[in-house]
């Protein structure tokens, strides 16, 4: 599945299923309604007036239609029929020790018996088959319009490859009804997570008031108009036999390259790499942006976008986030292809998806190394002198070194598309896998690095420093801002990498990073501008006026980020001439959050924005909407508590936080938020227990233990405070605030030597730390002076 994801959608265990759906299955009558779903519960197509359907294209484009017909795109989603269902529904029962299901067929109906709403085991009718290779999933349509993919998938690979079997997609997870990752949970809802990329012309049709879907589409699968745009006008033109100059002659998305250029090898070029010869490729950007919405991890910012829109006008892409990408940019989580491809030199050189893949069947233009040989001279690259592996071996494949694979959904191996040069030396420093030791599993990365140095010399063409800077930024290491700033201002680096570096800079910006943030705001790349605007959120609202100029940016993502950063600025504080632009961008921002109105995290985002604008009623309604979808949603409870406290309702704030702790007893942030609320009410003694719990639950979060120590100290329990700080530093030896606190406590006890030791350690972390330097200077002045000579 290709979800329109934000990082929040992967959150585990702090999420719970929507209360409204839980209520839906509370009675036997409604439970029966779920089990006895219609035999063929397939939604009626919307057939938007501007769409014609793929069948209308085949008359004039028969070769393309024939090629597409058997493609994975065409079969991305199909009604469940004997012709489309690949799985064995002969009545077999499958279990993996945690989960059990029985698959059977009644005529043309396909039924799966497994645990459903409320944990009740029941029969569920399959409405659609989902994908074909290397696995096929199956959807169940519920009466409220939700489609949910069953957790058991059919391994469609040949039996010789381990296929032709049922397997559970998350066998290690104890998934029960109520968990958002359970197959009936919100993180598996097809309407939101998958629909836009598995049907053509999707209209999600979510109604917030009833919490129901009426999802419609033009046709199942990824049809012609998913890429070329709505074609009704073009079909009308063709049927009318109108002039070629008629505007309808052109499809909405111009994907055909009419430049007349080609990739050619320059005679005598020792590099052996083809270059584009001829006029610029007009369709290059359009093609990549057409593929991006379904081949990128991204959050939609408009509802039901139509093909042909600029990517950053419809989506906010995920940057190179920790857990989703390695620090060197290689894929890690299920992020698809766009994020890695946009890092590649090939993309910057003008290579597009269709240079390697036939756009109609998705297959490569040639097999093995031959596809690379289109632009990389075999005599230079497909040789043992280059790859240092036996000819014909796996190691001699270009993809083995330059497109390492990661396995998703148990069996689906996907290639990294950054086409990077293997760097086991860098991978070792950032704790990431590398292409060499992924194959040579019995060898260390140091061995692989030495082999490469032996082959190519100790000096490598690639500069590794950007990956090390990204890792330093992720770890929050002192001085990381300088390395990140260098990436931001290096325009030879790809935009997604530079934007990631911006996102890792300290907020508010430090002296070392402020210039980089300013440069990013003025950058030609809209992804840089949008990310840099987020960096301004750490500033006092009075210092955010730099964002005003971006309210009229030509790119929607930039405009909405400008509106977001200006949210707490009163309207009458904005320049009068800019207020209409703010109103327009603000409306776009609110609409972008309401795209995901069914998600509690979107409602929390809305609540925060409305609260910042002083709309207390709107903010409260959004928080209540979030909790209606999930009464135990941690972010909603914690943020609601802060909202209640700010408007002078401390008891309501505490009630929300106690509810959060009760629902999430293992969530450190819930205990910590409760403790802070108690401290704000002057009940510091009561805060000690939840502070201790937070510190114990999250020993890697040094801020919790630090606040616990300060609270202990304020209660006169100095020895316990010092012990907590010392333990915190043993776990987190670079926690500057704990060092300063220990130095201050030692100073107050007259132990100047110990105080100096801690202050020096803090200053060593960051020589530009003015407060640590001032404290150290004060402590040196407190040293006992030696007696004067002769006395």
What can you see in these coordinates?
There is one protein chain. This protein has 791 residues and is α+β, with helices and mostly antiparallel strands. Helix content is 42%, strand content 10%. It has 37 helices and 19 strands. The strands form six sheets. Strands 1, 2, 3, 4, 5, 6, 7, 8 and 9 form a nine-stranded antiparallel beta sheet that branches. A two-stranded antiparallel sheet has the order 10-13. Strand 18 and strand 19 form a beta hairpin. The radius of gyration is 29 Å and the shape is globular. Mean pLDDT is 90; it is low at 1-46.
Features:
single chain; alpha+beta; 9-stranded antiparallel sheet; two-stranded antiparallel sheet; 19 strands; globular; disordered N terminus
Summarize the structure.
The protein is an alpha+beta fold and 791 residues long. 42% of the residues lie in helices and 10% in strands.
Give me the secondary-structure topology.
Blueprint: H1 19-24, H2 28-35, H3 55-58, H4 62-69, E1 78-79, E2 90-95, E3 100-106, E4 109-115, E5 121-130, E6 135-141, E7 147-149, E8 152-155, E9 165-168, H5 190-193, H6 195-198, E10 199-200, E11 206-207, E12 212-213, E13 219-220, H7 224-228, H8 232-240, E14 262-264, E15 275-277, H9 284-291, E16 298-300, H10 311-314, E17 315-317, H11 338-341, H12 345-349, H13 353-356, H14 378-381, H15 384-387, H16 398-402, E18 405-408, E19 412-415, H17 424-430, H18 435-439, H19 445-456, H20 465-475, H21 480-488, H22 495-504, H23 511-521, H24 526-535, H25 556-565, H26 579-594, H27 600-612, H28 616-629, H29 634-646, H30 650-663, H31 668-680, H32 684-697, H33 702-714, H34 718-731, H35 736-748, H36 752-765, H37 770-781
